[in-house]
Amino acid sequence: MSDEGRPSPLPGLLVTGAAEVVTMRGGLRRGPAQDEPAVLRAPSTDPGDPRAPALAAWEGRIVAVGPGDEVRRAIQAGGYPADRFAVVDAHGGTVTPGLIDPHTHLLFAGTREGEMRLRQRGASYLEILGAGGGILSTVAATRAASGDELAAHGRRWLGEMLAHGVTTVEAKSGYGLDATTELRLLEVAERLGREGPIEVVPTFLGLHAVPPELRDRPDGADAYATAVATEMIPAVLEQGFARSCDVFCERGVFSVEQSRRVLAAGAALGLAPRLHADELAPSGGAELAAEVGALSADHLAVPSSTGIDALARAAERSRPVVATLLPATTLFLMSGHYAPARELIRRGVPVALGSDFNPGTSPTPNLPLVLSVACLQLKLTPAEALAAVTVNAAHALGLGESHGALEPGRQADLVVWDVPGHAQIPYWVGANLARIVVKGGRVAHARE
Ligand code: NIG
Ligand code: FE
User: Fold this and answer.
1) CATH for 99-396?
2) Are 112 and 359 in contact (CB under 8 A)?
3) 65, 188, 229, 384: which could join 380 in a potential S-S bond, CB 3.0 to 4.6 Å?
4) Cβ of 358 less than 6 Å from ligand 1
5) Reading across the β-sheet that carries 53-58, which strands appear in turn?
6) Strand, helix or coil at 179?
7) What is the pLDDT of residues 45-88, one digit of tens each?
């Protein structure tokens, strides 16, 4: 009955033989709870120990997690036919929820490796953008790309992400800056999610940069914010693919007032707000995220102390703002300003981590590498970092009730890692340890 390593047509899935199952059950993590991964461990090193932790899923949903003998009893008691389960043997590895990347700019055309050299020589990110490079060079290439070209690019990088244990990805638009291209990016994101196996959550990021057409006007940023709020958002709504609305709220890019206007227009039509906040300088982004009750405030490399206070107050709400930190971006920008993760956790703010996959500031599809950087530079523990890319990332995407944890009733998205304990996942820096990746109860990737 073993189907290990192949996509299975069987409705059931039984994962056995794990040294550790990291369940992340118990909901959103904040404060000291971010360091509590709810781990089930094998009681002995005997690979055949009937009490070794196991997980059963049926038709894509988890039905039981716990000691192996109990899971088998639950399968029987539930009336599930035992011969309709594909068995995945974890061979003494570690099982975690599938990783969720809550912040990517998945779809774009062209590359920007030359900017790395410019930054090494001292040019800043905003200087490069001001000179018409940066985001604007990606916009020119993206506008010229067809939907099929963008989809081929997206498939390639989603494949890399899947191979690193990622089962759900947020994908922002933002390299069109005109209605036609922005809608094309959202359409491709939706199409790729429908194709699977990775689930794609599209986000509208119209307010990403002032488009080239308006750059020479002194009121260009303001005029563009008005166009995003009054023309693009209704069109995005009519298309029906985006679930949230993002803005680049940053001194020298878009002001708090412009960001607020766009987020309010989106929220009025049902798009949840999220922000690029305080990435390069304290810009009021964290404060605005708390004010509008954003799903997440992202980057937070250099928030002000009032911004941190505002997020800490928001953390007391039933639905707090998730601080989505993107340390691979700090690494790639060579800024040295890593987000104050320890302070955020100490103040009770739930922390998520994302790759920020994009051609300018974070060209990496490797979310486990981001965990390593988070441990090394943000000083997260391995358990905190794992919570940040599972249960907390799910909340940052509004999927907190269905994704991100191995609990009965939730989606059966999981990874079997080639290490005996979760602390080794960020420890082997840059290694690809994901052996088997399961999405919706099916083996979606198995390493050769
Ligand atoms: O998250 N800062 C805005 N957006 C991206 C970078 C986009 C780009 O440079 O192409 C970010 O860093
Ligand atoms: Fe980003």
Assistant:
1) 3.20.20.140
2) yes
3) 384
4) yes
5) 61-67, 53-58, 12-16, 85-89
6) helix
7) 887 888 999 999 999 999 999 999 999 999 999 999 999 999 99
Place of tokens 């954003």: 294
Measure Cα distances from 55 to 10, 145, 269, 408 in Å.
15, 44, 40, 9
Task: Give per-residue pLDDT as tens, 81-110.
Answer: 999 999 999 999 999 999 999 999 999 999
Ligand 1 centre to CA of 116 (Å) is 14
Query: How far from chain centre, in Å, is Cα 292?
Result: 21
Domain ranges of the chain: 12-97+405-446, 99-396
C-beta neighbour count of 440 within 10 angstroms: 18
279 close to ligand 1 (CB < 6 Angstrom): yes
Four-way CATH pick for 12-97+405-446: 3.40.50.2300, 3.90.1150.150, 2.60.120.280, 2.30.40.10: 2.30.40.10
Q: What are phi and psi of 314, to 5 degrees?
A: -65, -25
Q: Ligand 1: which of 208, 298, 357, 361 to mutate, most ligand atoms within 8 Å of CB? A: 361
Q: Which residues pair with 96 in a beta bridge?
A: 415
> What is the sign, positive or negative, of the torsion defined by CA atoms of 216, 219, 224, 230?
negative
